[in-house]
Each structure stands twice: as structure tokens, then as C-alpha cells.
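Entry for the shared binder. Reason: the reviewer on the internal report wants the predicted structure included alongside the sequence.
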Amino acid sequence: MALHHASSGELINVRPYRDELATSVTRTLYNTDTLKVFRVVLPAGKQAPMHKVEGELTAQCLEGSVEFTAGDTVHVMHEGDLLCLAGNVMHGLKAIEDASVLVTLQRPTQPSGGA
């Protein structure tokens, strides 16, 4: 069965998991051709390896704490911290403690074809 992705105008709960964090998983919440919103769940010590994406993104720490590496800079993020990042910047996450992070990713629009 496919996981549910919210539709335009649908309310999405992104409150901290708290006691359920240890049993929660990363999941996409909203997904269109131009925007992707997902919640990354990382147990302490786990990481999302360095990578880059074309579009701009935001990362908001919802709970716990993470090291967010952007280029050569490491930011320690705690609950409530928000980081904005330009496209094509190498970045990665490492959980200092069990954490969840809300990521919003802009997908570049494809040029319309035709002449």
C-alpha cells in the first residue's frame, strides 16, 4: 500500500513525536513537481551522507539535535532552529541525539519545450 501524501490545502501534523520518536521513520509528507516536504528521522549517531540538490531547501529541527553540515560549515541545530540553503550546496546531517527534521525542497521547474 502506498503511503499517503497530503493534498493541496490539507492540514499536516509536524508536532514533535516525543515518546514515539524511537519508533518513527522518515517519510514524505507532500510531493509535487515543484515542491517536496519530508520529515527526516535520525536516531542518535546516524547520518544522512553529504549530497547536494538543485533546488533551494529549508531544514527545521523539530526535536532533538543534529549537526547540519553546509559546505565547510557545521551548524548545531536544536528544536525550533531553521536553516535555509541555496541549491547545489553540499550538505549532510548527523544526529547528536534522536531527532526529527522537517525538510522543504524546491524542485527546479523544467523549461517548457517547443519552438
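Summary line for the report: The first strand starts at residue 27 and ends at 31.
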